[in-house]
Amino acid sequence: MADQREILRADVLDGTPHGTPHGFLTGVGHTGEPDPALLVPGGKLVLTKQVHSAKAIAVESPYPDHARPEVDGLVTKTPGVILGIVTADCAPVLFADIDNGVIGAAHAGWRGAHYGVLEATVRKMEELGAERTNIAAAIGPTIAEENYEVGFDFYEQFEDRHADFFRRGRPGKWHFNLPAYVLWRLESLNLGQVEDLGVDTYANPERFHSYRRATHQGKAQDGRQFSLIGLPD
Hints:
- The protein is α+β, with helices and mostly antiparallel strands.
- About 20% of the residues lie in helices and about 25% in strands.
- The chain has a 6-stranded mixed β-sheet. Strands 1-2-14-6-3 form a 5-stranded mixed β-sheet, with no helix packed on it.
- The longest helix is centred in the middle third of the chain and has 11 residues, at about 115-125.
- It holds the Pfam family Cu-oxidase_4.
């Protein structure tokens, strides 16, 4: 049976001369890895063990399940390779420099974004021949500020210059704007185009898994959705 997951696409990645095969997939009602043929016929899906790091690597082929590297950014220039990121509130970010045939994907939770996974991914793309002014980047479904309440221990991880990404909430609590923070980090890299889809994982239970929503509801927290980008073979 064909994979029936809904696929959201970004204008900045579709708007290149021939478009870039990509998609932010819904997760609710589906289990297991998506079929890479959703993007590229015969494509090979590359996944890693995501650990909220700031590390990115270049890849050419999939890893065995037991040997997936602990990284949160992937890049490639190998046709037929599909880069995959799994999330359930963190920001999935997909990158493409279609002119130079280089793509990337990053798992950007607050920790990874704060410590440089987006910058590391762009640097790895440059090592493969990408140019920043040609790179388009899109932020997929992510928890929104209104649903991301944090305490002082979280707030104190940031600097005064990041204050605009926090809003006061209940006593001793703040709301953190993760998508705005990720957008700011991307725009600081002077990329060609950047887009935030503006979709809240927490507020869309019929479409997306949300780790925080599951925690609040006392439900299993293992649901995830995939974000994919590939190069035609």
